[in-house]
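User: Fold this one for me? It's DNA repair protein RecO.
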Amino acid sequence: MVTKTRGIVLRSIRFGESSLIVDVLTELSGRVSFVVRIPKTSKGKIKKQYFQPMTLLEFEYDFRQKSSLQHIKDVRIAQPYSSIPFEPIKSSVLLFLAEFLFYTTRDEQENSTLFNYISTSLEWYDSACVDFANFHLVFMMRLSRFLGFQPFLEEFTEGCFFDLRNGCFTISAPLHSDFLNAKDAEHMYTLMRMNFETMKLFKLSHNERNRITELALHYYRLHIPNMPELQSFDILREVFS
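Assistant: Here's what I get for DNA repair protein RecO.
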């Protein structure tokens, strides 16, 4: 069955001498893995640069239910980036988010709402000229809404704790060890109040930004089975150091 859809490249790895294994979050089919043969000549329709992490694609493929690796028939870049490839900070953030999404959407089925959130967020980031340092923080925590474990903000009071397992604020410390103390709980509350338009109002130091990223990743690891430590976070720490 021939399927036409949009997709976001999450990871591509070399396979043999002239092919790639590409993991894509698609609009119509959720997560799909492809084997892509890259022509040796520059005149070929399918080009290696199409499969850089977080590239927004439109493509056509022949879906075969019994195959774990699908084959792309035709592909093009749906929305070329105008700033991200030329700004090292933005590029580093996108590599981090690509690895983050690779694990958080691993078992994702068709979810066009999730796909649209990610694609429109990337387009916003590409167009942003100033005040985008908190983008990845807002992106990560807003994503939890689409994955089913968005934190509840209603019970926040100064000095309270944050229960990471249940995603809520509590007056007393939970009986388990997966909770944040008052200072980190306030960081979580600050994070969940941000959106892309208002995040410029929240002035964070480099250390605070890295700490909040650590808290967000810890929260995800409790809710996503077998989510590992992200290797790209070390690079992100250097960006925001």
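One thing worth pointing out: The CA atoms of residues 83 and 127 lie 7 Å apart.
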